[in-house]
Amino acid sequence: MKRILVSQPKPENGKSPYYDLQDKYPVEVVLRPFIKVEGLSAKEFRQYKVSIPEFSAIIFTARTAVDHFFRLCKETRYDVPDTLKYFCVSQTIANYLQKYIIYRKRKIFFSESGRAVDLVPILEKHNKETYLLPISESVEDTKASVLDAHNITYTKVPMYRTVSNDFAPDEKFDYDMLIFFSPLGVKALKSNFPDFEQGDIVIGAMGNATIEAVKEAGLRLDLTTSPEAPSMSIVIDHYLKEHSKRK
């Protein structure tokens, strides 16, 4: 076991529990996503015929949605009013709004638990608002289905999409372990390397949908999380520890 590919972006601060594994074991850990997010252009957005000024409140289910909402507002020359209300699935997303607005001067609401279902009572309390939900064009928003189940009236519109982060022809792909966190990542692997054969390569995945995608792709699932090892970094740590004992 020499090289491990973790399909996540590199952290901005350069710190990651995956990098810590390099200090414990003789392995190289590469953080490199198989997928990336790109924003819809203003022209693409207008094709959905949704007018942002018609809405009094925005529902955010991800920080990515926050980024592309404000980007498109700027590109479409919409001056976001101080009266616009923001409803966020988590406090983390709510705090992220400070990147674009003066937090204390806005009406911001969020679920204390970080669960979409616990945002529902707040939305119901403000039932006179007209809600807009920015979503991905290529990934189903499971949190939107929670709103549907509780008959929340809202309009959803794609503002970004997830695409394959293609490997360059001269980019090495000599990994002994691949770790996935999204079904789209598994799909991107097959797209980039249609003749990929797993062989002795260890594959790990987190999340039911990702695990199912690995199996549907005809690949062998070797590692996943459990109550005893709730994160993939811990799972890899346990595997490397056992691997070193067998040497």
Walk me through the structure.
The protein has 247 residues and is of the alpha/beta class. The chain has 2 domains: 3-34 and 167-245, Rossmann fold, CATH 3.40.50.10090; 38-162, Rossmann fold (3-Layer(aba) Sandwich), CATH 3.40.50.10090. Helix content is 32%, strand content 20%. It has 9 helices and 10 strands. Strands 3-8-7-4-5-6 form a 6-stranded mixed beta sheet. It has a 4-stranded parallel beta sheet with strand order 2-1-9-10, with helices on both faces. Strand 9, helix 7 and strand 10 (202-205) form a beta-alpha-beta unit. The radius of gyration is 21 Å and the shape is elongated.
Helices and strands in order:
Blueprint: E1 3-6, H1 17-24, E2 28-31, E3 35-39, H2 42-46, E4 57-60, H3 63-75, E5 85-88, H4 91-96, E6 107-110, H5 120-125, E7 131-136, H6 142-149, E8 154-164, E9 177-180, H7 183-192, E10 202-205, H8 208-216, H9 232-245
Helix pairs in contact: 7-8
